[in-house]
C-alpha cells in the first residue's frame, strides 16, 4: 500500500473553504465524517468522501482539515492501515489512547480565535453536532452548517449516487404487508402523541415498504427517505425505479386507495424542503418523531419544541423482532448457507494440502458455493478469510498484498455470510486442516465454552443482551485470556448484517431488552497476535425457554442456533468440557446432520454430505 | 402504624411559602428531598425534613408541596410503608410504575402558568437541579433556590445538628497520614490542572483527615466540609471539637508546619461565603474540582467556566482502594465479627426451639455479642433480623408491630454488621433451626451457587463490577428464578457500609473498574413473597489472581472472602453443586475453622468453637 498524495487536494479544499460561492463566510476548519446522509455503517462509493480526501478507506474515521493541519481520528483497528494509506500531510489521531485529544479539544487548541468550523449538516448526526458545537461555542468558535458538501465540489470524478432497481418482497417473505406496518407505526405514534415520523435510516425505509435495493454493497437497501403522517405517506426516492410495474403494483401507486395509504412519491433531494414545510405548519403539541442520530439538517428542519427524539425508532424495534415468516425465511437461508459451507470445507480439506489455496481463492470459492443456492443475492459483508497470523487481525480482508496460502500447519478462520431473498447469514468457523497443537485446541475449547455459555443461557424476559456478555468470556478469563470485541450483534432479515437495537456486548448499555423473535450473533473469539485467530460464530434466535419455576410470572428466554454448520471436533479438547457442554455439542451436531444432511441429500451433494456426517460424529465421552 | 396528621403542618408550610420573610417571591411549590447538605445516604435526625413534613420515614423519597397538592415519590421498597405512614393530604407517587409522572412532569401538569418552584439549594445536588430546572424552564416555570430551609422554619422542635467528639485514627489503622493523603490529592489536582478541590461528602472529609465521628447513626462521620488548595487547607467544622487536645495534636494545629499543611479551621456555616470568595478570586484557567453530586449551592459558588465536575472524586477513588493497614484492619474486624456470630448462632440453636426468641431479641443479642469485641464502636446499619415471610421484605427492620418469633419451622435471615475501629462489617446468613424443605434447600443452593460464581470469578484487571452481576444469577435463571436487587456494594474501612465508586449490579454502568485492594459485598438472594427470604452475603477483597496465561499482560483479579462465618450446610442440596463448588465450600469452611477457630479459642469461647467445628464439617461428596 502506498499512501495517497493529497497535497493538491488539500490545497484545493482549503481554497473552497474560503470561496464565497460555497461558504457564506470562510471556514477555518472543515470536518469530513465517515457516514452518509442516513448515518449508514456501510456506504456507497459516492459517499466515501473521507477516503477521497485522505486516502484512508477504513470503515471508521473522521478527517478534519484546517488552514494549517489535516488530522484523522480513527480507532485501534485502523492505526496501521491509516498510517500506511495517508501521506505526510496528515496527522493520525489514535482514538482510545490516553494522550489523543478529542476532535473538539484539538480544534480548540489549533484554531485562531473566533473561528468557524464547517461541516455538511446532512452527514453529521444531530447528537454529535450538539456535543461538538457546545464545546466549540464555549471556546469562542462556531460550528456552522455548510450546505454544499465541500469535498463534492473538488471531487471531479466522484461516482454517481447509485440508483439501482428495487426488489419487491411479498408476504411469504415479510409476513406483514407494508400497509399493516404503517398501521402499526401510526399506533406507536398515537401512543407517544406524535403526528409525524421521519424515516431516515436506509434499512428502516426498506423494511417499512417491504422493498429491497442494491445501492450499497452488501446491504440490500436503496437511497430514500420517508415521512409518515397520521394520514399521509411520503416516499423520497430518485430515478425511474418508481416506473417499474412490479414496484407500482407492490406500492399500489395506481390503485384507488384510502387516502391514508396513498403513497406520495417525491424526489430524494426534496426531503429537506418538504420537512421544513411540515415543521412550519405544525400546531402546538404536534410533535415530529426522529431518531436522535438523524442528520443535523433534518433535525433542524423541525423547530426544537416540536421534536420527539429517541435513540431507537419504533421501526428499529419492530424490525428487530422477526415474525414467523421472517424466522422461517432465516431458517431456510441458514440451511442453504450451511450447504454451501459443507461444500466449501469438504473442498478445502482436499485442496489445502496441495498448497494452492490462498485466502482469496477460499473466499471466492465460498461465494461460488453460496451463489449456487436458491434466492442468493450477494454477500452480506466482505468475507474475512484469514490463515495463521492474519486470523489475529479481527477485521481482516484478504488483498493481494497480504494474501496468504492455507496450509496444514495453520489455523484457518472464515467469517462470511450472504444475503438471500429469504434471509441474511453471518457465520464464523475456525478450522485446522492438519493437526492442531494442544495449545490451539485449548484456546479453541475455551472459546467454544464461551459460545455454548451464551447459546445455552436461560435468562428472564426483559434482560438486555449486554448482561450476557461475561458468560462468553468466563472460561477464557479463568485462564487469563480474553478477546477485545463484543460478543454479538443484531442481524437483519434480508437486510443489514449489523442492526440495532439489541446485541451482546460489554460496551453497549443502551441496548433494548432481548425478546422472543430477535436474532443476534454469538461470536466469542481468541486472538494471538502474530500467530492465529479463533472465532466461533452462530446466528441465534431468541426463543421462550421452559423453566422449572417462573419468578413473578416473567417468563424466560434462551437461544436457538439458526446457523447449522459443524464445529470442527478435531479442535476440541474434550477433557476441558463439562458433561453439559459435551451434550450441547453432540445435540448441535445431531441437528446439523438431520437438517442440513436432508438438504444436502435433496440437492444431491453426496460428497459434502459424507463430509458432514464425518464432522458431526459424537464427541468421545469426557474422561 | 398510624399515619402522621399533617393538615396543620402543610397549612403552615404553605404560609411560609408566601412569606416574604423567607422567600423573595412566593413559591407555588416547594420540594423537600431526602438528603442532607452532603448528599448522604444515612442522615441525622435534624435532616429528616421529609419525614417531618409527611410522616414517611423510609430511606428514599421526595416530597413536593404545592398550594393544592402534597405528593411523595418513592420506590417499590416503600410503597406499603409510605401508604401507611402518610395521611390523606398526601398522594403517593409510585416510582418505577409506568403511569407515574416524574416530579418535573407532575409539577408542569399542576402548576399555574409562570410558577416558582422552591428548593433548598444546599440539599439538592447540582446534577438534579440542572435536569429539573431545564424541564421547568421549558414549561415556563422557574426553579428557585430558597436560602432558608422552609421546613426548618416550621419545625419548632427540630433536633439540634449533632456535634459529637471526634476519634483520631493513627497510622496503624489508616496506613497513610492525612498529610500524605493531601500530597496525593494535590498531585491528582495537578494532573487535572485544578487549583482547588472541595470535599463535600462526609465520609471523604473523615477519610482525608483520618478522623471519625458519630454525628450520623451507623456512619462514623461528622459534619464538616474541606477546601483543599495547592497551598492551603481549610476545614469547616463546628463545636468545641477542635479544642480536644488529641484532635489538635492529630491535625498538628499547634505545631509550626510548612504553610501548605497548616489547617485553617473555620465555622461549618461559612463554607458558602468562603467558597464564593475563592470563586471570585480565580484567575483564568484556575479550575475548582467538585463532585457533580455536590449541592447546587456550593456548585453555583464557583462560576461555571471554572468548575471541574466529575462523578467520582479522587478521594472517593483513593478511599475505595484499601492499603495494607486498612486491609489488615478489615481482616481483624471480620474475625471478631465472626466470633460474635458464632456465639449468636450457637445461642439461637439452643434458644429458638423454646419459642421465646423474637426477631428483635435476636438482633439485640447479635449487637450484645458484637459489643463484647475489641474496638467495637456501633452497628454499621439497622440489623435486618427476619424470619419466615418477613425475610422476603428485602429492607426489613423488625419493629414491635411486625416482630415475629423465630421457630424451627421457618427460615431465618440475619443481615447485620458493625463498625469496629479497625473495620466495617456486613454479613448475611440464612439459617434453618429445624428441618428445611427440599424446595427451601434447592433455592438456597442456587443462591449459594451464585455467591460462589462471583466469589471465585477470575476476571481481567480493569473489569467493572457490573460485568460480574449475571454470574450471581445464572443458577437461579436456569430454573426461572431471580432476585430484584444488585449483587454487591463497596464497603468503607471503619466508614460507610455503602460506598462508591465500585459495586456489582446490573443497574449501574458508571462504576469504576475493580482493582486490587477494593472491598465489595457479594450478596445474591432469593425471595418468595409471603414465605421466606434467602441471602448469602460476604464482604470480599479484590486480590490479584494467578492465571495460566496473561493476555496482553493485563493481569487478572479475583476475590478473597473477608467474612468468615459458616454457611449452613444443612441448607445445601449437595447434589446441585459441581465438584468445584463443593470444594469451594469445604475450603471456605476450613478457613473459618482455622482463622475464627483460633480466635474463639483465644477468647475462651469454647461452646461457640464447638458450634463452629460442627458447622464446618466437610460436605458429603457429590453423588
TrEMBL record, chains A, B:
A matching Pfam family: Peptidase_M24_C
Annotated EC: 3.4.11.9
Main location class? cytoplasm
Q: Which cofactor does it need?
A: Mn(2+)
What's in the GO CC field? Answer: cytoplasm
Task: List residues of the Peptidase M24 C-terminal domain.
Answer: 557-619
Q: Which UniProt keywords apply?
A: Acetylation, Aminopeptidase, Cytoplasm, Hydrolase, Manganese, Metal-binding, Metalloprotease, Protease
Q: Where do the Peptidase M24 domain residues begin and end? A: 328-542
Q: Which domain of life is it from?
A: Eukaryota
Q: Where is the protein localized?
A: Cytoplasm
The GO molecular function terms of this record are: metal ion binding; metalloaminopeptidase activity
Q: Which residues form the Creatinase N-terminal domain?
A: 49-150
Q: Which InterPro entries match?
A: Creatin/AminoP/Spt16_N, Creatinase/aminopeptidase-like, Creatinase_N, Pept_M24, Pept_M24B, Peptidase_M24_C, Peptidase_M24B_aminopep-P_CS, X-Pro_aminopeptidase_P
- Which GO terms of type biological process are on file? proteolysis
SUPFAM superfamilies given for it?
Answer: Creatinase/aminopeptidase, Creatinase/prolidase N-terminal domain
Per the record, what are the reactions this protein catalyses? Answer: Release of any N-terminal amino acid, including proline, that is linked to proline, even from a dipeptide or tripeptide
Family named by the database record: Belongs to the peptidase M24B family.
State how it assembles: Homodimer.
Q: What does this protein do?
A: Metalloaminopeptidase that catalyzes the removal of a penultimate prolyl residue from the N-termini of peptides, such as Arg-Pro-Pro. Contributes to the degradation of bradykinin.
Identification of the protein by name: Xaa-Pro aminopeptidase 1
Specify the taxonomic lineage.
Eukaryota, Metazoa, Chordata, Craniata, Vertebrata
Corresponding gene?
Xpnpep1
